[in-house]
Design goal:
Elements: E1 5-9, E2 15-23, E3 25-27, E4 30-32, E5 39-40, E6 46-49, E7 53-58, E8 65-67, E9 71-73, E10 76-78, E11 83-86, E12 91-93, E13 96-97, E14 99-101, E15 116-119, E16 122-125, E17 127-129, H1 146-156, H2 161-171, H3 176-183, E18 185-190, H4 225-238, E19 240-247, H5 259-272, E20 277-282, H6 287-296, E21 300-305, H7 310-317, H8 324-336, E22 340-347, H9 355-367, E23 372-377, H10 382-390, H11 401-411, E24 416-418
Parallel strand pairs: 18-19, 19-20, 20-21, 21-22, 22-23, 23-24
Antiparallel strand pairs: 1-2, 2-7, 3-4, 3-13, 5-16, 6-11, 7-8, 7-14, 9-10, 12-17, 15-16
């Protein structure tokens, strides 16, 4: 099989494959020819141009990277643009696009940019299919009946601010978890907070003026416990499939900042039904709050982190009033309380897989007997995150994402690695 060729675009976004140069990819700071086997572009993936960035290919004779700053196609000569790929849920990227930013390059919108090339049968990407469960198949979402289901649910609970927020998330942001609330199946969303005690560099709902546009808009008014309970009770009683409700969504801040209100909501839910699972997606900063929620009936927690290295964690999360030691204590409490413990690992090739990072993460997973690691390709301009990592105490050379996942499995036998939450029957 021949090596994939370089893909690039013209100023109008049309894609071309280079007749000579081979595809290159980035692993952290290093750019070179990929040593991993690519996969065909998934059915719902797509290739996109990266504005303000020149493509980088590999000279097949020397094996060296080449920055492509001008190209002639037919009678046209133009400055080409680098490209990357977006992948559907269930895939984890292993390499980043190879590009050379121009001096005036804008900060890229918040997507998980993946290395792409042109193979013998079309576009290919450097990624792993890490969760093959079909209930997150994109064909099951954004269906023609969704708008009617949203309208009917809003009419049945007209004053519920959560449902009004989820209408936007479901119909405008195409959030699958929000849509599940209206389809009444699997994992449903219950946004709970407008506040946050972290200032994540890649936050998708709050960005400074100089940053990229936030991809989600937060709620402007925090819901009451009764509003949360009404959404939760309806779903837990009636939903089919992997019945679950989850606090902590992309369109909100940190849910534990409102743990006392969430505690009341959980108690109302569990007074009404014992069916299904109650989960929280959290930065795990407030141990007291997580402990109280477990006592109220919470049975699963998904802790978001980019690193088990306190220096890199702080550089990205920029926490307010807590630090990584609080996250560590919360994981210990979750384990003691018997919660299903998952990590929402914000994965970035060339950083998470550095030897020092791998060792710290494996130690954390083993010590807290973590049940699941969900690999979430970090949605951020790669250059922006590399700058964050340069300012943190990360050590060692990258070993590659596949090797990282292998090391995690060895550190914690039985560890589930995937992309989606597990329902009660899957734990």
């Amino acid at each position: 099989m021949s090596a994939p060729r370089l893909l690039f675009s013209d100023p109008e976004g049309r894609l071309y494959d280079h007749p000579v140069l081979l595809a290159a990819a980035r692993l952290g700071e290093a750019v070179g020819e990929p040593d991993e086997k690519p996969a065909p572009l998934p059915a719902y993936g797509r290739v996109t141009s990266l504005p303000g960035r020149l493509p980088v290919g590999i000279d097949p004779d020397t094996g060296e990277p080449v920055v492509l700053d001008q190209v002639t196609v037919g009678r046209r000569t133009f400055v080409p643009t680098a490209v990357g790929a977006f992948l559907q849920p269930g895939w984890t990227r292993t390499l980043l696009p190879a590009d050379e930013p121009l001096p005036d390059a804008p900060v890229l919108p918040q997507w998980a940019y993946t290395a792409a090339g042109w193979g013998e049968d079309g576009p290919v990407v450097w990624a792993l299919h890490t969760d093959r469960r079909g209930h997150w198949d994109p064909t099951n979402f954004s269906t023609p009946e969704l708008a009617g289901l949203v309208q009917a649910r809003l009419l049945a609970d007209t004053d519920n601010r959560i449902l009004r927020q989820l209408k936007t998330c479901a119909l405008e942001y195409n959030c699958f978890t929000s849509q599940n609330t209206f389809y009444c199946r699997d994992e449903a969303a219950i946004p709970a907070s407008i506040m946050c005690n972290a200032r994540c560099v890649g936050c998708i709902s709050d960005q400074p003026e100089e940053g990229p546009p936030a991809s989600h808009e937060r709620m402007d008014d925090a819901p009451l416990a009764d509003e949360m309970a009404r959404v939760g009770i309806h779903h837990l009683k009636n939903a089919r499939g992997r019945t679950m409700v989850s606090f902590g969504q992309g369109c909100e801040g940190e849910p534990l900042t409102r743990w006392k209100v969430i505690e009341k909501a959980i108690r109302q839910m569990r007074a009404a039904t014992t069916r299904g699972s109650i989960n929280i997606n959290t930065n795990a900063s407030l141990t007291e709050g997580l402990d109280a929620l477990a006592a109220a009936g919470l049975d699963a927690v998904r802790v978001s982190l980019n690193s088990a290295n306190p220096s890199l964690y702080a550089a990205y999360y920029r926490p307010i009033g807590y630090d990584f030691s609080d996250v560590d204590r919360s994981l210990a409490v979750a384990r003691k309380r018997g919660l299903y413990v998952a990590l929402n690992l914000l994965l970035f090739p060339g950083v998470n897989d550095r030897e020092g990072e791998v060792e710290a993460l494996c130690e954390l997973v083993a010590r807290h007997r973590v049940d699941q690691v969900q690999t979430r390709s970090l949605c951020i301009d790669p250059q922006q995150y590399l700058e964050v990592a340069r300012g943190a105490a990360t050590t060692g050379d990258p070993i590659g994402v596949p090797q990282l996942l292998s090391r995690l499995r060895k550190a914690r036998p039985g560890l589930v690695i995937g992309n989606f939450a597990r329902g009660l029957g899957e734990r």
